[in-house]
Amino acid sequence: MKKRIIGATLLTVVFALLISNVVGILMFRSREMDAARSTLQELLELMDAQSAITEPEALMEQFHAAAPDKRLTIIDTDGTVLADTDADASQLEDHNSRPEVIDAERSGWGEAARHSDTLGTSMFYVAKRFADGMIGRAAMPLSSINSLVMSGVWGFLIASIAALLLAFLLSHRTANRIITPLNSVGGALQGVLDGKKTPGLEDLQADDELRPILRYIDKLMDQLGGYIQSITAERDKVSLILDCMDEGLILLDEEGKVLAINRAARILFGFPEGGEQEDGALLLTRSRRLREAIHDCQEKHSSIMLDVDALTEDARSLRLFVSPVSGRQYEGQPVGTSILVSDVTELKKAEGIRSEFTANVSHELKTPLTSIKGFTDMLSSGMVTSPADQKRFITMIGVEVDRLIDLINDILKLSELESVAIDQTEERSAVLDAARETASLLEPSAKAAGVTLAVEGESVTVGVPMSRLKELLFNLMGNGIKYSENGGMVTTRIHVQDGKAVISVEDHGIGIPEEDQSRVFERFYRVEKGRARKNGGTGLGLAIVKHITQLYGGTVSLESQVGKGSTFTVILPIPNN
Q1: DSSP assignment of 130-153, as one string?
Q2: Which of 80, 212, 419, 569 sits between 20 and 30 A of 5, alpha carbons compared?
């Protein structure tokens, strides 16, 4: 405020000085022009009084003697220049078109300030019609007039600077007298807000007009300090409770406007700190069901529970408990409704996974059981009498039983992987050895499919039990065999990158469409269901790979192009010892 007072005072002084200087300079210049005009007029009258008949040469000598720094031009009645003190008259053009000459011929006197083409400088001209009709024109450079004006400007500038300094000193002193008491009051009030003890204001040096106000403020601060301390303590207690809640809490007033949103609710909905009204308007416009629930809650005075999935940007599943509130206030405003928000995304996801898993397991078990039931019914009914057909049916029953056993074993493996945390054993396994042993186990099925297996890379040890490491490799390499064409190759590479073991299994088979790549690690998901069942797949192999990798702190990824093949990459941490 002090700077604003001084600035406003100086701005006013500068503005006043600017106006006065401009007016003074203009008046000073006008005075100098009048003086120059009077001088030139006197010289011309003196030249005209010398003789009734103008003698140009004699006038030139007299004018030069009387005013050597000025110019005289004698112009005939037809505009011809007869003589000029500063130029050769024979080289000058007709002067009848000059404005000062035109005015002198018409009214006897004429003047003009303009640029002279003859001398190449700005001149001030005064012309007079002599008694015999000739025109005498006296002139002087405008630069001489301007120099006189500039010499006067310095005086104005010095006086202005002195006035500005004086105004600054006076405004500074005045501002101090005004601001010092106000600063003291502001500091004392801020101390009260911060909970600090501040000195009284009664002894402050101030004008008599301010002393009663300072006494009243002093008393008010004492009362205000006590109120603020109690309110601050209560506010901190409420804020701590709200911010420590895992559930989101939203308070609405009786008109449905948002009064408060706690930290958990802000995180859920992605709202920044502050701006409750804007955040509330955005929240309430996201869901028609929520608006209707709030309205019904206030109308019926009963609690309502609803699940919504589209209130957050990442479409999380939320469970909202909308309850009426009466007779309560938040920061002085009555509360009408409270909304308790719980994130049930993971709960619903788990429920969905369980439901989907049950459906898939039921479907996968039903298919081989139906086949077994059909074969056994045909055998028991005596419809199949040929020993060869009976043997074929019994073989088919055995295939379906093996399929059931494989499916149950994979389900048990998944259940085991999901039910344990990462093993805290000291067991270590060599990845290259595990890959070579797995390739040996798969060699017969690879030859049957016309596929070549290759293992290459460097030796590296990971903290994964050998049995689970082989299970991981068995599923990846087995998938490569199943989905490769006759004459294809499945290559397993092991290397170290950024201190981690990298296992990549590459095939040149049918590939996986881009829209299916994000789902191949789901249980029972098959890109080509018929081919997978024909090759004996259960649909759980890649799910087992993902769970083993995650169980030991690793990651698995896929790169694939249809018709060119697929590459599965597993990255596992390398233990320190």
Answers
A1: -TTS-EEEEEEEHHHHHHHHHHHH
A2: 212
Cα-based distances in Å from 242 to 235, 266, 270, 411, 575:
11, 12, 17, 44, 43
Sign, Cα dihedral of 295, 300, 303, 308: negative
Q: pLDDT (tens digit, 9 = 90+) per residue, 186-207?
A: 666 666 556 565 555 555 545 5
Report the amino acid identity of residue 476: L
Q: Under a CB-based contact definition with an 8 Å cutoff, are residues 249 and 262 in contact?
A: yes
pLDDT of residue 391: 80
Tokens 């011309």 belong to 44
Confidence category of residue 436, pLDDT binned at 50, 70, 90 = very high
Beta carbons of 335 and 328 less than 8 angstroms apart: yes
Residue (of 300, 286, 292) closest to 256 by Cα position: 292
Instruction: Provide the residue type at 2 as one letter.
Output: K
3-class secondary-structure state, position 332? coil
| CA–CA separation, 70 and 92 (whole Å) | 18
- Angle, in degrees to the nearest 10, between helices 431-449 and 466-482: 30
Over the chain, what is the mean pLDDT? 76
427: helix, strand or coil: coil
For residue 575, the 8-state DSSP code is P
Q: How many CB atoms lie within 10 A of CB 65?
A: 8
Given a cut of 80, is residue 359 above it in pLDDT? no
Q: Give Cα 495 to chain centroid, integer Å.
A: 42
CA distance 577 to 260: 53
Across 37-41, 311-315, 380-384, 502-506, least confident range:
311-315
**pLDDT tens, residue by residue, 96-143:** 888 888 888 888 898 888 887 777 788 888 898 888 888 888 888 877
Length of the chain: 577
Distance from CA of residue 304 to its chain's centroid? 38
Cβ–Cβ contacts within 10 Å for residue 171, how many? 19
**Residue 485 DSSP class:** P
Q: Assign 3-class secondary structure to 247-308.
A: CEEEEEECCCCEEEECHHHHHHHCCCCCCHHHHHHHHHCCCHHHHHHHHHHHHHCCCEEEEE
pLDDT exceeds cutoff 70 at 278: no
